[in-house]
Structure formats: structure tokens, C-alpha cells
Amino acid sequence: MNMAEPTTETTEKTTQCADGACVLPKQAPTPEDELWTARMAAYEDQARALTALTVPDLRAKLAANESLTVVFSRKSCPWCQVLMPNLVLAQAATGKTVYYVDTLNTLSDPVLKAFRDEYEISFVPTLLAFRAGQVGAKYDGDRSIADVQLFLQNN
């Protein structure tokens, strides 16, 4: 006698019952799950408007005494999701280039972690304006378009 429930397209095996003896029905995503997925997708689309930068490339620019504005951010951060569209609009309004360092892998990327530690980037989003290879300004203001735009214009 087979005690296992039949497996269908709407069921999935669990790690506890990998032999197929027990299955759980697949659950439809909750509205919260759908919203979270949509926010992360929107963030990724908006981040493409910025200039992606790796830490080694950023270090090279700083060593060359370049002046640049960099946002340290990640798609899974709700505050980053709020800032990103406003930052993209402020960048377009000012015509300034904003560089983007994705911090999603900070814990597994020792180069990124060392940079964040060196520049005391404890939280995201963090927006830094580097001048002549040094931090000239750090944005700690509101996430409104007007405030971000003012920061970009002044730095």
C-alpha cells in the first residue's frame, strides 16, 4: 500500500520529505511577497540609470584623485528602494553622474567589506561625494528629490 500522496504540479517536495512521501501544496504568493518582488525589480531597473562601479574601480578613481559621487546601496533594503527613484531623477535633473556600488554581498566580499569599514559606511543607502580622492561630503538628508538634487548640485 502506497501511503505517499500523489505529486502534482501544485505540490512540491520538502527537504524533510525528500523521498516524496510527503508533499505540501504550493502556496500562492501573498500580496506582501508580490509587492516585495515588484519593489526589488523596480529598484534594479532604476539602478541601471546609474553607473555601476566595483570597489577596485572606485579605488582606482580615488587614487587618480577623481571627484565623483557614489551611492552604496542594495536592492533588498527598503530605504534604498525609496531613495533610488529619487536619486535617478535628481541625477537626470542635475546632469551629474552618480556611481553605484551594490552592497548586497558585503558579508561574502572581503574587498567590499574592507572598503565599507575603511570609509565607515555602516548603513545603506549611503551617498558620498569624493573630492580629490577624499570624502568631501556625506548625504544624511531626507530622501526627497529636492534634497538629493541639492546635494548633487553642491557636491
From TrEMBL:
Would you say which domain of life the source belongs to?
Answer: Bacteria
**Gene3D superfamilies given in the database record:** Glutaredoxin
The cross-references to InterPro entries, in alphabetical order and at most eight, read: PedC-like (IPR046698), Thioredoxin-like_sf (IPR036249)
SUPFAM superfamilies cross-referenced by the UniProt entry:
Thioredoxin-like
Q: Which Pfam families match?
A: DUF6568
Would you tell me the protein name for this molecule?
Uncharacterized protein
Q: Which organism is it from?
A: Schleiferilactobacillus harbinensis
